Amino acid sequence: MKVVFAFAVFLLAAAAVEEKRQLVGICVEECSMALSDSTIMAALGVKQQCPDGHVCKSNGCGHTCQPVTKTTIPTKSQCSGVMCAMFCIDGFQLGPDGCPICRCATKPLPTLVVS
User: Fold this and answer.
1) What UniProt keywords are attached to this protein's entry (predicted)?
2) Which distant-in-sequence residues (6+ apart) come within 8 Å of 62 by Cβ?
3) Where residue 19 falls among pLDDT bands split at 50, 70, 90?
4) Is the four-CA dihedral 46, 50, 54, 55 of positive or negative sign?
5) Contact 51, 44 (CB under 8 A)
6) Which end of the chain is more exposed for a tag (fewer CB within 10 A), N or C?
7) How far, CA to CA in Å, does 46 sit from each of 5, 40, 63?
8) In total, how many domains does the chain have?
9) Is this prediction's pTM over 0.85?
10) Do the domain assignments include residue 57?
11) How many angstroms separate the CA atoms of 48 and 37, rounded?
């Protein structure tokens, strides 16, 4: 009888744990994406929903005020990639324009100081 009672308690505990995993949370709607454009809001005389330095973004479940992240657009390199069919341990030499050329760079030989 004790074994059956212990087994029943174990099954109830396992079912309760499984039930907690399936609970659905509440999505926070701190701000609205429809009114997130500050130029529209300023024209309408509406205060911004998010404090300065923050913008309304989706967090995967609702919308919250998140810090503004600055994205940088990579600039095109003045040098094109080196298309050599060889491997250079010390890298490639640089041409007069500062771009790599298809020649292996060499390390300077160490100098020995004799005293």
Assistant:
1) Protease inhibitor, Serine protease inhibitor, Signal
2) 27, 28, 29, 30
3) very low
4) negative
5) no
6) C
7) 63, 9, 19
8) 1
9) no
10) yes
11) 9
